Amino acid sequence: MSIKFRKNLLVCSGKSCQDASNFDLVDFINTKLKDYNLEHEIQAVQSVCFNKCTIGPNMIVYPDNVEYSTITKDDIDDIIIEHLLNNRIVERLVYNDKNKFSGTNKKQYRIALRNCGFIDPEEIKDYIENDGYDALAKCLTEFTPEAATQEIIKSGLRGRGGGGFPTGIKWEITSKSISDQKYVVCNADEGDPGAFMDRSILEGDPHSIIEAMAICGYCIGANKGIVYIRAEYPLAIKRLKIALEQAKDYGLLGKNIFGTNFEFTIDIKYGAGAFVCGEETALIHSMEGLRGEPTLKPPYPSVSGYLEKPTNVNNVETFASIPAIINKGAAWYSSIGTEKSKGTKVFALAGKINNVGLIEVPMGTTLREVIYDIGGGIVDGKKFKAVQTGGPSGGCLTEKHLDFPIDFDSLTAAGSMMGSGGMIVMDEDDCMVAMAKFYLEFTVEESCGKCAPCRIGNKRLHEMLTKICDDNGTLEDLDLMRNLGVVIKDTSLCGLGQTSPNPILSTMVNFYDEYHAHVVDHKCPSGQCTSFLKYYIDKENCIGCLVCARNCPVNAIFGEKKKLHIINREICIKCGICMEKCKFDAIYLK
Amino acid sequence: MAQIKSVDDLKKIRASIQEKNQKAVANNDNMEIIKINVAMATCGIASGAKTVMNFLIEELPKRNIIANVKQTGCMGYCYAEPTLEITLPNENPMVFGYVDLKKADEIIEKFIKKGELVDGIIPINYELAK
Q: What CATH number was assigned to the domain covering residues A7-93?
């Protein structure tokens, strides 16, 4: 069986393409095809959104992979006569403004996700078939540990967990620490709200992590690896365990790997899901069975880590890139990306974006490309407001950052951070003060409580934000918040506290007018903070049935039968029960 | 099971896997087998990929179609889960989004049996580092 129709027209079914065409393009094309007696050779079908909403309606001619944009009814005849009958591409409909779109759909480049979605994660043979364990074999038989480490250094790979420390340098430092025992730790304690790339990699391609950990072990001189994974990821744990068993059965873990003297084993340790345990010193303490609290660095784990032995901690995504780097060479990897951030980065797109999902793009891709070309733009065609990168430790990027190339340093310069790569997109309906409060709530909850700035300072910050959202804030609060935020950043013990005020500080820089509106004008511009809203009774609709008054838990509604009721706003607690109970739509919020 | 003790062993195993795949084709009257990948990460399973996969495994033999249905990890199209990637012999892979049981049935009847494309195709928007 093969594809029946000579050609297929894939028509974008995205909402904006449909709105733009204002008629059923698929039906229209199919009717037209009948007019030309082509209905047995060519067919038009709807496809999932192409993410090129600004230039819709769009369609792709398959298998030619020619893409036409901004099509109108009149263009269909041209496309049929020229392209479908005479195989001449209708150039005027091919959109190739290089400034907006590169002319290709393929903005993404998958290195860490190269096998995700293609191989069966529970079948080692699938991995081996796709060049699996070649990199380990190459390292053990062709490279000395130093040469392999140099390869990683030359590739320019930086830690994908958030900090962006050069991976090869970390390996080199650990390899130089002298000890009878060293450890390789894979940090799979993914805690950022909205980030799920580590889970996806472990669920889709666990062998690449095993292979990379063994390579790391060879480079730094360790024979034991530990994956620290959160217990909330049962499927990832299950697949990792299967993969470990299979690797052992094939002799790819254990003694004399590939007939050399190198031995390596991997254990799994479970995290209970504390955000702070993603910090490497806290993670190591948690593995030792102690409380998941960070300690001051130095000593760095590469000198004294797990059980006080030199330990190399890398993130899942970092490890996933390693086999590809060894197989294809450092020069290949360093040719991708920007000057100081090489390679690709996986981002988890979430929030008010059409194509929520996991993407991998070369470093230096602009925010606009990520949000509009790959992410398909904002839900319901609303206006883009901001994107929070780096989760609760990061900051927000706004419209003025849209054409910013994304890499480690540019994000830091913009007051945000790469973090693990979560991107939460917000539209015009989102209140940035409420957003900052939401993230702070998370850090207050997740603070381990060891150092005072983080434990107490964040709590105070949260109280002030709550005050502002409840319409009790003052301008002094804003100054105090900014000062306190800077102090927390400067004095906290670990990364959690040092970054926790970031959402507030960055929204105060980019959206100061919203804070100002909350405390001075007593308004929430986006209407999200309900404290600023008041309930009103509509004179026209109220029939005086007393239902609202009877249901009001604080007796704030007064009125007589068949007469207009009144809400006493001094007493009203804004619970909304009256609005829910009214059958005549007589109560509204404003 | 044969342990891999050298680079040659790895190459041998890889060759034997490839050979086995080719043999499966030969046993099947030299018909290339249809490959179906089902995105089965936590997110896919949560939106019903397992039901769809079971449906395919049960229904395809009943309808006399020989296909290799395989679970894979996340394909990245979280907005369109559950997703399937189907490779018909000698064709490029096609990705279908929003595949519920009804859609799966339509895909079998129209795409797999007759080669007609159905609504819900996701244009592939990435390149692989291979």
A: 3.40.30.10
Walk along chain A (590 residues) and give the pLDDT tens digit of each residue.
567 788 888 888 777 777 776 678 888 888 888 888 888 888 888 887 776 667 778 888 887 778 888 888 888 888 888 888 888 888 888 866 443 333 345 678 999 999 998 999 999 999 999 999 999 999 999 999 999 999 999 999 999 987 889 999 999 999 999 999 999 999 999 988 888 999 999 999 999 999 999 999 999 999 999 999 999 999 999 999 999 999 999 999 999 999 999 999 999 999 988 999 999 999 999 999 999 999 998 999 999 999 999 999 999 999 999 999 999 999 999 999 999 999 999 999 999 998 899 999 999 999 988 988 888 888 887 899 999 998 888 899 999 999 989 999 998 888 888 888 899 999 998 999 999 999 999 999 999 999 999 999 999 999 999 999 988 999 999 999 999 999 999 999 998 999 999 999 999 999 999 999 999 988 888 888 878 888 889 988 999 999 999 999 999 999 888 889 999 988 888 888 898 899 998 998 87
Tokens of A118: 């293609």
Report chain B residues whose CB lies below 8 A from the CB of A378. Answer: none
Across the interface, whether the CB atoms of B39 and A108 are under 8 A apart is answered no
Which B residues, 25 through 64, put their C-beta within 8 Å of a C-beta on chain A? 34, 37, 39, 41-43, 45
What CATH architecture is A124-332?
Answer: 3-Layer(aba) Sandwich (3.40)
Which has the closest alpha carbon to A266: A191, A321, A210?
Answer: A210
Measured between CB atoms, which of A117, A200, A251 is closest to B5?
Answer: A251
Cβ distance B76 to A196 less than 8 Å, yes or no, reads no
Tell me whether domains A344-427 and A432-519 share a fold.
no
Asked whether the beta carbons of A324 and A213 are under 8 A apart, the reply is no
User: Hey, where are the domains in chain A?
Assistant: 7-93, 124-332, 344-427, 432-519, 534-589
CATH of domain A534-589: 3.30.70.20
* CATH code assigned to A344-427: 3.10.20.600
* Preferred mutation among A45, A322, A353, A378 to probe B, highest tally of B CBs within 10 A: A45
CB-nearest to A120 from B18, B34, B71 is B71
Q: How far, CA to CA in Å, does B111 sit from each of A3, A62, A522, B103?
A: 8, 14, 59, 11
